[in-house]
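User: Here's a structure from my thesis project, written as structure tokens. My advisor, Dr. K., wants to see whether a designed sequence matches the one we expressed. Can you design one independently, without my sequence as a hint?
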């Protein structure tokens, strides 16, 4: 019996939610808010575990565009090289990652804007 796309998507989502829930506080709460903001800004994005952490792509076999991770007590939100990102003004630099110790409404708005840009 083959596994359907819905079954795989549900399994991927469950793995991401379990990963986030396994983190100590306040990172589990921050991760939940990031997850919700990413899916709210990019409803076509599909969550999956990517390099051991939550990643979001437009399809199960397409490149991850945005992700977040917790490593040694440091949480980061990032945009992969496959995402569309504008250069910083007067520079050749493209933003790619930010560190988080807490999260507020302004940060969630900024993340939502970055997510919308990443896959537009």
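Assistant: Designed independently from the structure alone:
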């Amino acid at each position: 019996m083959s596994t359907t796309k819905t079954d795989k998507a549900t399994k991927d989502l469950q793995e991401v939610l379990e990963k986030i829930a396994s983190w100590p506080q306040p990172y589990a709460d921050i991760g939940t808010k990031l997850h919700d903001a990413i899916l709210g800004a990019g409803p076509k994005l599909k969550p999956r575990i990517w390099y051991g952490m939550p990643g979001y792509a437009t399809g199960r076999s397409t490149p991850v565009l945005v992700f977040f991770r917790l490593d040694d007590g440091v949480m980061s939100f990032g945009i992969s090289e496959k995402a569309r990102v504008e250069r910083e003004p007067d520079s050749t630099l493209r933003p790619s990652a930010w560190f988080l110790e807490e999260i507020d409404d302004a940060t969630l708005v900024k993340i939502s804007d970055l997510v919308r840009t990443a896959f537009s």
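When you compare it with your expressed construct, this may help: The first strand starts at residue 46 and ends at 50.
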